[in-house]
Amino acid sequence: MNKLLLGLIPLAAIVHQANAQSRSVSGRVTDRATGEGIPGVTIVVPGTTVGVSTNADGTFALDLPAGAKTLRISSVGYMSVELPVGNETKFNIGLATDTKMTSEVVVTGYGGSQDVKDITGSFAKLDQTKLTSQPVQSADQALAGRVAGVQITNSSGTLGDAVTVRIRGINSINGSSQPLFVIDGVPMTEFGNLNIMTSGLRYNPLADINPNDIESMTVLKDASAAAIYGSRATNGVILITTKKGKSGQSKLTLNVSGGMMEPTKLPKLLNASEFRDITNEKLNNALPNAAPIAINGDANMDGVEDDTNWVDQIYQRGYIQDYQLALTSGNDKGSYYASVGYSDQKGTIVSNRLRRANGRINMELTPKTWAKAGVNMSFNHAYNQGVLGPNLTSNFFASPTFGALNAQPNIPVYNADGSYYLDDQRYLGQGSNVGLTTYIPYTGTAGRLYHPLATLKLNNNNNTQRRLLGNAYLTVTPLKGLSVTTKFGVDYINNYEYQYSDPSIAGLGFDFGGVNGLGGLVQKTRADNTLTTWQNYATYSHLFGDNHNIDATFGYEQNLETYEASFTSGAFLADPIFKDNYSGLFDPLQSGQGTSRDVTAWQSLFGRLNYAFSDKYYATFTARRDASSRFGEQERWGFFPGASVGWRISREAFMSDISVINDLKLKASYGLVGNSAGISSYAAATLIGQGQYGIYPGFAINKLNNPSLRWETGKKLDIGFDASILKDRIGINFDFFSNDVDNLLLGVPAPYSSGIPNDPGLPLVSKFRNVGRMYNRGVELTLNTTNLETPTGFKWTSSFNYSYLVNRVTELPAGDVQSSVVYRFASEGHPITEYNLLRWVGVNPANGNPQWLDANGNVREYNYGLPAGTWLHNGESTLNGQPVPEPSTQTDGQWTGKTGFPKWMGGFDNTFSYKGLQLEIFLQYSGGNYLYNSTRSQLLTFSATNNTTQILDRWRQPGDETNIPRLFINQNQHQRSSTLFMEKGDFLRVRQVRLAYLLPTAISQKFGSSRVNLFAMVQNAFVFTKYSGLDPEVNVAANEGTNSNIAYGIDQRSNPQVRTYTAGFNIDF
Question: Could you tell me which residue ranges the TonB-dependent receptor plug domain spans (predicted)?
Fold first, then answer.
């Protein structure tokens, strides 16, 4: 027994020694940027053959041999690292992307994609990281300030309002400047519901795309990149690629966020005391011999003086909550990505709310190595409780925004019993102010105002939209390098609008055809818009020898878009409880109904050829032949070619010694693109409408045909370079661009001999012709830098972009094109958004009268009591010593050289990261333009409504120097369109500040997840500007319809933009 024990002692010592020299370690390898596990990473012990590869989720386990001191971790596309083993048994390893080894792939359309190094066109790409880090209403807003040459403008801060996207400026006078949006290879419709009660777009269709479902957005700017889309690419193309399933372990992702919203700025108006003093001064200056007229502080005579801030009554803090759930999985036979989501936003104006539910399924099957089929489908349901906008064409007085800005502050909101304070006609009550209605020049309402809060609370302006957007495709590969694809896509929108004006208050009711605001109104509109797309194309790729690489695509496409709508309306409702227009519930004489239908068809043949030689010389040729039913039979087809070349000069032998330059590519492109968005589907046809002969109804021609009507054509030139220097720490993209637009589509009067009415007040255009030319030219610069990166894990990166643009209308043989405002029209030889205004001189310090310059540069002065629209020579007296007024005319307005569209714009993004902590600060800037502050003009009225506090700085006595003339009731000549209300639009906006923290894997696993990311952010934190209005970006006359390009930069009583505070988390399971 003792011998046995003695024999075991050496064996135990050997085992103990072996255990001391070898042990097991485990851990997880993740992408440092995303925190996701990396499969297939190689982990070896240097100097040995011991090693393993990570699993699908990035985890590994390894037995270390005796004497192992380090681990080497490497993977294709990532920087390799060596870690000391020490006494650790658990490792969490983050790998950084190796920018030298990876080449970013960019989608180019119709199944094509290219490495960034091979592209010779002008493009920009935004990946999902930037898209999902912003609480935006729609994906296009995420581009704001982040892409050179792309401008995103909100029409207001109202939820769901339209967003305008412009790439490299305004490319048409009357046509749309919106780019073509293509999602997963299928064009989206340009449909946006036209709300009859607001006469403008209220809903942004791009909001139907969930930003969390988007993998990337690629902006195609020049002809080489965009000409493959031919006639619809003059404004550029934005390609949206949604997420797809990935092979490997299934992953469930939950994104939850919530927060609050508040207006960035609200107007400062007079309080009750200031209003009484100012109004008395207006009255007393007009009636100097009369006794002062006191405006009672207790207008409703209930014994309590009222001081109502009507702006505070209609604005509030809003909230936002968003929930998104996504599941993805896949293997070698197929993959899928599925998501569902719900968001709820309560706006910053009372009763404004937007709720949206969305779902998506992207699925791809690969039953054979030579065949694959897939479906990309999304459904969106949105319910938008809207707000009557400030730009109503028929009765803008009913806008609650207009009412809040003008309502007198000495009037209460409610009666003592809690009911709304109204007068006998159900307008906002006047009380002892009733005598002031004489001095409120709103003839349509007999000098009365609508109750702002009652309008928001009792009326409805709702929109329900359902959208099905998707495609199905089949791709076969019969030969090596050759693939053939057929794809069918549909974009279906069902839109239902419901507008209700409560008869218990004055609103949008009708009185036998005339608007007087009484009686109530119910109006319902149903519209269906369907765009179908069928594509068939073949792609062939082949490498000839060692140096010649070609990639060719040829195909056919057809599109059919059908729009059908019907509406019914009924006015003079029997009782407020009835909120539908069923027969018997309203006055049958005040009913209406109608239908409309619109059909447009396109056919296209297209092709693209990419050629690369020796990875140094590149060429791309594109061509598209389009036909559209919108044009005359003689010009239905258009041909749009494009070409580009590139020279990767850094690969030349003579550049090998220039170590500072890692990559340098010169590029140039030229091509033609088209546009037809500025005309209706029947612009080339003769149209017949309702007519009348005496008392007899009938039909008459109201627009002549034009069989020669053809496409607007843009000739695009682009010259630039892409470079990477200082060991790829700085990336540079520079482009000079020029777009000469010819054959502008404009409405012109028909000859009088045709019998077609040419009354400029008529909404119909007598004839469409191709008359006019304009150009946009400019430069773009983008810098992407790695400013600092330390071995401890701290990293600071930046992205800066800048663009400069000039525009000019070079030819308008049919004459100037007028917008709805007299001081803004497109004219030959001037930029499209240049102001033509009276030149403001100032206020005469001696008497307080306003002064301007006439066409000859003479100082002219308006003296109160003269007829409106007249003026005098300064100090001139004629005819028995009395001044003789002379009329001012439009020719007295002069071109200012100032434009509404910015000349320069861009963004500056900084990201600081340390281990799991990340801070992003994003700045946006714009300038070189002037805004016309129409809101300020209206709030400086001398009528008996409320004013901005700026009116306190008015002229009061001889010697005063100010820009606000002597107050004089109802004499508003100082509000004439002049340079007085033109202000600089430059701004620097802190667009977003975001702080995020990626929990360590060990902590995440305690929650049963592989990744947990926490974040908090503020959007629209601050804006630095000299503009006195609510926001230098807010309201650019988006409701101008086809004149929105000309009217850009006019600020008209819009709802302010919002500041958003958001916090949330992202969890992967």
Answer: 116-237
Please check whether residues 785 and 871 belong to one and the same domain: no
- Asked which of 899, 927, 953 is the last residue of a domain, the reply is 899
Centroid of chain to Cα 584: 44
Residue 440 region, left (φ>0) first, then alpha (ψ -120 to 50), else beta?
beta
Which two three-digit tokens encode residue 133?
A: 């880090």
Distance CA 611, CA 54 (A): 38
210, 229: one domain: yes
Instruction: Give me the domain span that covers residue 624.
Output: 105-244+320-330+338-390+457-676+711-743+773-811
486 with 572, same domain? yes
pLDDT tens sequence across 839-864: 999 999 999 999 999 888 989 888 88
Q: State whether the Cα torsion 412-417-423-428 is positive or negative.
A: positive
What's 427-464 look like in SS3? CECCHHHHHHHHHCCCHHHCCCCCCHHHHHHHCEEEEE
Q: Based on the fold, state whether residues 89 and 113 are members of the same structural domain.
A: no
Number of H helices, E strands in the chain: 9, 58
Same domain for 481 and 611, yes or no, is: yes
Q: Phi and psi at residue 786, in whole multiples of 5°?
A: -105, 100
Would residue 1002 count as lying in a domain? no
978-1013 tens-digit pLDDT: 999 999 999 999 999 999 999 988 888 888 888 899
User: Is residue 800, in this structure, part of any structural domain at all?
Assistant: yes
pLDDT average, residue stretch 732-754: 85
Asked if 891 and 855 count as a contact pair (C-beta separation under 8 A), the reply is yes
How far from 433 is each of 447, 448, 504, CA to CA, in Å?
11, 11, 22
Query: What does the alpha-carbon distance between residue 209 and residue 204 come to, in Å, rounded to a whole number?
Result: 10
Q: pLDDT tier at 392 (50, 70, 90 boundaries)?
A: very low
On the CB side of 114, how many CA atoms lie within 13 Å of its CA? 27
Lowest mean pLDDT among 151-165, 244-258, 447-461: 151-165
Domains identified in the chain, total number = 3
Same domain, 350 and 486: yes
CA distances from 839 to 221, 806, 934, 955 (A): 38, 24, 16, 20
Tokens of 248: 């490997």
Q: Are residues 610 and 659 in the same domain?
A: yes
CA distances from 738 to 168, 176, 768, 834 (A): 9, 19, 26, 20
The answer on 632 and 562 residing in a single domain is yes
Specify the residue for token string 């076969």. 476
Q: Residue 666: enclosing H or E segment and its boundaries?
A: strand 661-675
Domain membership of residue 485 (yes or no) is yes
